[in-house]
Amino acid sequence: AELRGWNIHVEDYPVSIAMESFMAEVAEKTGGEVTGKIYHNGVLGSQPDAIEQIRLGVIDFGEFSLGPMGQSIPETNVVSLPFIFKSIPQMYKLMDGEVGEAIGKGMIAKGIVPLGWYDAGARSFYNSVRPINAPSDVEGLKVRVMSNDLFVGMVESMNGNATPMAFGEVYQSIKTGVVDGAENNPPSYESTNHFEVAQYYSLTEHLIIPECLCMSLKTWEKMTPEQQAILKEAGQTSANLQRELWQAREAASMDKVQAGGTTVNKIADKAPFQEAMAPVYDQFLAANPDLVSLVNMIRSAD
Amino acid sequence: MGLTILLLVFGLLVVVGMPVAFAMGIAAASAFWYEGFPMLITFQRATAGVSVFSLLAIPFFVFAGELMLHGGIASRLVKLASALVGHLKGGLAMVNIFSSMLFGGISGSAVADISALGSLLIPVMKERGYRPDFAVNVTVTSSIAGIVIPPSHNMIIFAVAAGGGISVSKLFLAGVIPGILMCVCLAIAAYILSVKHKYPAEPFPGWGEVGRSAADAIPGFITAVIIVGGTLSGVFTVTESGAFGALYALLLTKFYYRSLTWDAFVRAATGAVRTTAMVMILIAFASSFAYLLALYQVPAKLSDLLVSISDNPIIILLMINVILLMLGMIMDMAALILICTPIFLPIAKGLGMDPTQFGIMMLVNLGLGLCTPPVGTCLFVGCAVGKVKIEEALKSIWPFYLAILLALILVTYVPAVSLWLPSLLG
Amino acid sequence: MVGQSSKFLKLQSALDAISRACIIVASVALVILVATFGWLVFGRYVLNATPTWVEQLALLLICYIAFLGAAAGIKEDTHLGVTLFRDMVPTVLQKILIVLIDLTLAAFGAIMLIAGITLMKFGWATLLPMLDIPESFRTLAITSCGGLIFLFAGARGVLRILTFSDWQPSPHELDT
Ligand code: NA
Ligand code: NA
Q1: Residues in CB range of A9: below 8 A, 6 or more apart
Q2: What gap in Å lies between CA C114 and CA C131, rounded to an integer?
Q3: In this structure, what are the phi and psi dihedrals at residue A248, rounded to the nearest 5 degrees?
Q4: Partner-chain residue, chosen from B22, B51, B243, that has the shortest CB–CB distance to C37
Q5: Domain coordinates in residue numbering, chain C
Q6: A85, A135, B311, B406 - which has most CB atoms within 10 Å?
Q7: DSSP per position, B148-201
Q8: Adjacent-strand bridge partners of A135
């Protein structure tokens, strides 16, 4: 069968390359029984739409951020908690292990089978006003965030002015001062040219939200056990490839924004930021009591 | 096969007179059914197509335009135009064109322009000895300048159809000169015809009258300044500036001009809802339709075809324009922007054309389609307002077609026409 | 243009009332939309606290404006179509085509209604961001649109069949 794959990124993005290599490996190992075509550039719809489509079996596989999945799959929301992972390597380790297992269970219950965890780096704040070194530096800044209670709560708990806004409006809005800044990973900060208008990039690394190569449960159930094993294996191989490509891409983006005159600052002590997030965690855990053990599993890991 | 079903069902339904929006929806549903997709994907795509943040500017622009229309701004603009250009040869034709330039800067809707200005000006023109077909043709062709002069909800539709990444404020700026250029070309055509038919010039009312009518019209014109200026200066996003334009128009017509009655307000709101819904339902089912076009890789295939015919950019752009003109003869603007942008924009980009310039070119081109038979909304409305038979109007419309074609050629092949102003102020 | 008997007229005026109600609800949604954006800008500049629900509420309201307005447009027959080719065939054939279009639209409306209900069930556990209400409230717009189109186009089609010799195909009138 020829599978249909959804991808929002351009053809030469790390995710896109890894997806193509995934499909090539699957085609080869199944002897051409399972092949696929990947529709890049989001021509088959935006991310929330595509998540719905994969659940309905309209598209067979795709690569999603766990962020927008949170609206329909509460388990995936756990990784949208600020500062929940200590580092990218820790995220790899936990997602490839029992944390990924637990989140994956929640996804399968909603019709999505994870095949491999991809890297989307760490998101940090950027703005056109001042470098951020402490939570108090966020105070009063108009910061664009994705439409999600957690991200709004994160900025508000530092007394910032959280402003949900369509992604496409952000560049012009920073440029003209409708908002002061936003937050994102280095490749997005660079490729959207936001670095031209928001010159302070402060490496708060507050959100490490993994992405997922996944398959529609409806498609998955049509596969033989051997094909399923091949898909899982190819998913993991492609995840390893994507992580490597991502690291390289991230470094290239950092070089480019610094050459473009951006002031990048590391955060000497992240503890005050983490402490400021207490209300976000309290509210989330109060609203999702059955996720307490999963949150604790991640937070207590080293 | 799926693609054949999609296009065949669509074509058949359009030919028998099914509203275009639903022809797209039904064609998409048929193709989804053929592909074995769950039927509800048609409607998931349709809902997703409408829930797009940048589209929110459309109801705002339309509402602001309706408020100005029902709140008495059109007559004030005509008065100002009369005072300024009425004394030229063929004075009322010049007034007609100049009013459209001003009105287009507020409403961005050609049909609103024709019904507002046409009902004011065509009877007066007939009275002063202008041939009815001439009066209608001037009204109809000049109304499409309003599509290109900012603000314009069709620019929003283009920006959305292009898949984001195109700045609406840049499109706004890029439309100014082409819009004025269209009006100048039309004015020249009207001037030549006026000399030939010995149409009269009106007496100049004196600078005092110019000043008074300007003072009366300028507060209305500020609606456009708020929308465009608010966006450019960064006080508002495009969407917010649309909302503020509507709020300002409401307060102005209610408290300053005092011409907005409750009835007029209700007419403006319901009128805005009707227009918005008509555009939005097209956008909704166009997104189901476009999903399938993407799935069948139509843009890439068509692009390969065009490029295989010629690799000369001038020829390819000419072909794109001819295709758009032919499609524009049988279909309406919004639907064509939505269907054709994903197909032709990548080709134009491949030729090194700026997407903003491509957008303006497309708007001018499809605007001409609104004045051409067999399907020309503007032509139909203009003939209805001016009580002229369509055949009658068509006999003498060609000089105006030539004028717009000239503007189209300049927009297509001279990037500076659209890109100079944005480069200056962007 | 359709049906003269009092039963038909009663049905007609009921359908008119429903279609007017659609336009009124959509107009109120439009006014709310303008007002919330005023509040959004006021909040961002004056309170320095942007109301975070405006964006998502607006995306919800626009669905109702679009789909309720479109349903009323079916009743009022204001959607843009190409009637040129139809106008060229003999009158009887024109009338048959017009009835077929009504019935096709009604069938499409029914499919829209059923698919909409399925979408609503499917989206019940997905929350709209920032509003924290089920996604089904968004799909309710297209679901009602389907039901209304089924009603408007279906009733008109049936009335046109029942009174087939009493009406004339009129050239498509544009909403000016
Ligand atoms: Na005019
Ligand atoms: Na036309």
Answers
A1: A15, A16, A40, A41, A42, A63
A2: 26
A3: -65, -40
A4: B243
A5: 2-173
A6: A85
A7: HSSS-HHHHHHHHHTTS-S-HHHHHHHHHHHHHHHHHHHHHHHHHHHHHHTPPP
A8: none
Which residue in B44, B232, B234 is closest to A52 by CB distance?
A: B44
pLDDT tens digits, B228-239: 888 777 778 878
The one-letter amino acid code at A16 reads S
Q: Are C57 and C36 in contact (CB under 8 A)?
A: yes
Neighbours of B197 (CB within 10 A): 12
Q: Find tokens 């998913």 and name the residue.
A: A235
CB count, 10 Å around CB of A9? 17
User: Which tokens is B277 given?
Assistant: 């819904």
Mutation for testing the C interface, residue in A71, A75, A143 having most C CBs under 10 Å: A71
Contact B374, B329 (CB under 8 A): yes
Task: Please give the pLDDT value at position A285.
Answer: 94
Which of B127-131, B404-408, B415-419, C2-6 bottoms out in mean pLDDT, i.e. has the lowest?
C2-6
CA of A119 to the centre of ligand 2 (A): 50
Give B64 or A105, the one with higher predicted confidence. A105
**What pLDDT does residue A274 have?**
92
Q: What is the ipTM of this complex?
A: 0.85
The pocket of ion ligand 1, defined by CB under 5 A, consists of: B 96, 100, 117, 139, 142
From residue A5, alpha-carbon distances to A2, A16, A57, A226, B294 in Å are 10, 11, 11, 21, 13
Do strands A142-145 and A161-164 pair parallel, antiparallel, or not at all (unpaired)?
A: parallel
Query: Which 108-127 residues of chain C touch chain B by CB within 8 A?
Result: 108, 111-112, 114-116, 118-119, 122
* Widest distance between CA atoms in chain C: 66
For residue B166, the model assigns a pLDDT of 83
Average pLDDT, chain A: 92
pLDDT of residue C173: 43
**Integer angstrom CA distances of residue B61 from B29, B159, C26:** 31, 15, 16
Model confidence, pTM: 0.85
Residue C4 CB contacts under 8 Å (≥ 6 apart), including other chains: C163, C166
Check: CB of residue B105 under 8 Å from CB of residue B221.
yes
What pLDDT is attached to residue A49? 86
Distance in angstroms between the alpha carbons of the first and the last residue of chain C: 20
pLDDT band for position C172 (50/70/90)?
A: very low
What does the alpha-carbon distance between residue C48 and residue C44 come to, in Å, rounded to a whole number?
Answer: 5
Host H or E run for residue B342: helix B333-350
Residue whose entry in the numeric block shows the structure tokens 């085609």:
A27
What is the structure's pLDDT at A247?
95
- Reduce the secondary structure of chain A to three states and give it as a string: CEEEEECCCCCCCHHHHHHHHHHHHHHHHCCCCCEEEEECCCCCCCHHHHHHHHHHCCCCEEEEEHHHHCCCCHHHHHHHCCCCCCCHHHHHHHHCCHHHHHHHHHHHHCCEEEEEEECCCCEEEEECCCCCCCHHHHCCCEEEECCCHHHHHHHHCCCCEEEECCHHHHHHHHHHCCCCEEEECHHHHHHCCHHHHCCEEEEEEEECCCEEEEEEHHHHCCCCHHHHHHHHHHHHHHHHHHHHHHHHHHHHHHHHHHHCCCEEEECCCCHHHHHHCHHHHHHHHHHCHHHHHHHHHHHHCC
